[in-house]
Backbone:
């Protein structure tokens, strides 16, 4: 089975736009996760205030609440791992785009590639490349 060929179309974004879109999507998901963490913290504070005020504290409710918080935090941690993998993949795409030199193809990109300098840059790293 061969790879499908996707024809060039005028509405398709270039690689730079795709990378920017990927980074923006990661950032937006991180903001959403921060809101979830904040809401969970407020929920814990509210529960603890009510728990301390109640003289007939029910420890079964406390354990149930703890399990609920634990489940939510576990889901957030899994999502963070997926976002990390998405970021690493995006950085790989960026490195492959930047590093097209033949002498770099077998070496680790991040350590050997020149910086993202404008054409005609005279910095020391560009002179060595």
Residues:
């Amino acid at each position: 089975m061969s790879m499908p060929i996707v024809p060039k179309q005028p509405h398709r974004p270039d690689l730079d736009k795709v990378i920017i879109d990927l980074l923006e999507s990661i950032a937006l998901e991180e903001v959403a996760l921060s809101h979830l963490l904040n809401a969970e913290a407020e929920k814990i504070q509210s529960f603890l205030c009510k728990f301390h005020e109640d003289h007939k504290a029910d420890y079964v409710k406390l354990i149930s609440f703890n399990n609920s918080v634990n489940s939510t935090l576990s889901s957030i941690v899994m999502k963070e791992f997926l976002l990390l993998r998405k970021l690493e993949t995006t950085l790989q795409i960026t490195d492959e785009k930047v590093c097209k030199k033949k002498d770099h193809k077998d070496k680790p990109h991040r350590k050997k590639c020149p910086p993202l300098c404008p054409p005609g840059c005279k910095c020391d790293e560009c002179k060595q490349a």
Summary: Residues 15-98 form one domain. The helical segments are 15-53, 59-98, 109-112, 124-128. The chain has two domains: 15-98, 103-129.
